[in-house]
Amino acid sequence: MNAINYMKLSPIVPVVVLDDAEHALPLAEALLAGGINIMEITLRSDAALASIERIAKGLPDMHVGAGTVLDAQQMIRVRDAGGRFSFSPGISDELLECAKKEAIPFIPGVATASEVMLAMRHGIEGCKLFPASAVGGIELLKGFAGPFGSMKFCPTGGVSLANMNDYLALPNVVCVGGSWIVPKKSVATGDFGAITKLCREALGSVG
């Protein structure tokens, strides 16, 4: 499956930071119970790769990948751990070339027209707009729609239940990335039922 198809799996892609790999499977199960079958585990903790591996092996119905992928070495480690795709906060020749060489589904982060053009030159069909609210959010995406009509986006950063539909209403937005749906406190205390409830609430509000 290519990157754009992963983006189309769910209108909401949970952006997850896990400090303990023991929480990985229960969290993935909670997301699935709430109707979401994709998750981005950011490489912001030492537990990230182990968490990806546990989910990839233990819950194949969950499409798990990584976020905050910064270089080719990390991208390959994610793939080797069972991650199906990589999100990056930015875009670089190193990441683009690694993704192409290793056939790894890759969603680069962009914030400017020049970065979108770089992605398009490398055959990328979908990008993460990051940090969405800080770089212009909805108005920037409306501006991108004209010159970059074929490019699809996953805005992340400042997206919430309150504004997600404003983003999803745009024709060039396929999904949004959000951390609000996976509160760190709920994960830390093992309150996975609250996460399932948040997923159902969010999906029920789409449209």
Going across the biggest sheet, name each strand in turn: 3-2-1-9
Radius of gyration from CA coordinates = 16 Å
The rough form would be described as globular
Low-confidence stretches: none
Task: Kindly report the average pLDDT value.
Answer: 97
CATH superfamily: Aldolase class I
Q: Main beta sheet, described?
A: 4 strands, parallel
Structural class: alpha/beta
Strand content: 15-25%
Order of helices and strands: HEHEHEHEHEEHEHHEHEHH
Give the total of domains: 1
CATH architecture: Alpha-Beta Barrel
Helix content: 40-55%
CATH topology: TIM Barrel
Please give the alpha-carbon distance between the first and last residues.
26 Å
Number of H/I helices? 11
Give the tags.
globular; alpha/beta; TIM Barrel; four-stranded parallel beta sheet; 9 strands; three-stranded parallel beta sheet
Quick description:
The protein has helices at residues 3-7, 24-33, 48-58, 72-80, 93-102, 113-121, 132-135, 137-145, 164-168, 184-189, 192-205; strands at 12-16, 38-42, 63-67, 86-87, 106-107, 109-110, 126-129, 152-155, 176-178. With 207 residues, the chain is an alpha/beta fold.
